């Protein structure tokens, strides 16, 4: 490797980060203030945003139609910042079809609406098995689908992100969007789990 | 095997070697290191110093044994360093000196 004959990139991660922080601040590419600001902005995204979208879709047919047609536009209509991010596609679960989202190549995840990807989403076991053994994988999340419901596994890419619109749980008629949103967590929104009428948050 | 071409080691969808591995479904809190690397990547993207594809190219260039040994964000910081060196944004001399000074 001509650009790194000494193998500097083999340095331990914490040392590499400290060295790059120093150099990039000096070059005015990334200052400590900018890094702190970006961390704070990233932490504002969380599964609560995706949960609010799903709850809204359960309550409002027009929003549901928009969300299925154009996830990015639906997110933006709720004030979620999507500018400069890859398009968001929304996969509609039905009694006959369940969706499971994976990124086999790495970890592409709808971060704008779900926040940081969970540890398991980035793991080799999840990435490898989702496409070959989805039912075995779901069982490890405590999820058992009804007999006869098909599973469609969707592979995210760096250029297109997916989230799942789960089925509205039975026994939630007349509930407000806020109350419905509390039933949802990140797994429900990528299909490793399915929501029930039991509160999650 | 069910394919004609050998895969690169990051392309692990359906690969038999991982089929018996259980998924660790427990939550893992991110460390300060993880958050800082993540933020740095976003800033480099926004400032067009490194695209997502450039990050991926450098992650995928990590030798297989290191790829599986390193944590997720350890891969990222290594890939970021690799990209900045390849591009000349940072020279090897600068990086060596900064590493010696402890950042």
Strand percentage of chain A lies at 5-15%
What are the segments of chain B in which pLDDT stays under 50 over at least 5 consecutive residues? none
Global Rg of chain A? 20 Å
CATH A-level architecture of the largest domain in chain A: Alpha-Beta Complex
- Name the shape of chain A in a single word: globular
* Low-pLDDT runs of chain A: none
- What is the overall pLDDT average of chain A? 95
Major beta sheet of chain A, specifics? 2 strands, parallel
Whole-number mean pLDDT of chain B: 93
- The side-by-side strand order for the widest beta sheet of chain A comes to 1-4
**Helix and strand composition category of chain A:** alpha/beta
Count of alpha and pi helical runs of chain B:
5
Series of secondary-structure elements of chain B, N-terminal to C-terminal: HHHHH
Protein name (chain B): Nitrile hydratase subunit beta
Domain Nitrile hydratase beta subunit-like N-terminal (chain B): 9-99
Protein name (chain A): Nitrile hydratase
Keywords (chain A): Metal-binding
Structure description:
The complex is a heterodimer of chains A (201) and B (103). In chain A, the strands form 2 sheets. A two-stranded parallel ribbon of chain A has the order 1-4. Chain A has a two-stranded parallel ribbon with strand order 2-3. Chain A has 201 residues and is an alpha/beta fold. Chain A has 2 domains: 8-43, no CATH class; 46-190, Alpha-Beta Complex (Nitrile Hydratase, Chain A). Chain A has 10 helices and 4 strands. Chain A has helices at residues 13-26, 32-44, 47-59, 61-69, 71-77, 111-114, 124-129, 134-140, 177-181, 186-190, and strands spanning 88-92, 97-102, 150-155, 161-165. In chain A, helix 3 (47-59) crosses helix 4 (61-69) and helix 4 crosses helix 5 (71-77). By secondary structure, chain B is an all-alpha fold. Chain B has a domain at 33-100. In chain B, 53% of the residues lie in helices and 0% in strands. Chain B is built from 5 helices and no strands. Chain B has helices at residues 32-46, 52-60, 64-69, 72-87, 92-100. In chain B, helix 1 runs parallel beside helix 4 (72-87) and helix 2 (52-60) crosses helix 4. Chain B is globular. The N and C termini of chain B lie far apart (46 Å). The mean pLDDT of chain B is 93. The interface between A and B is large, with 58 and 62 residues. Chain A: Keywords: Metal-binding. Chain A: GO terms for molecular function: catalytic activity; transition metal ion binding. Chain A: Pfam families: NHase_alpha. Chain A: It comes from Lichenibacterium ramalinae. Chain A: Residues 17-193 form the Nitrile hydratase alpha/Thiocyanate hydrolase gamma domain.
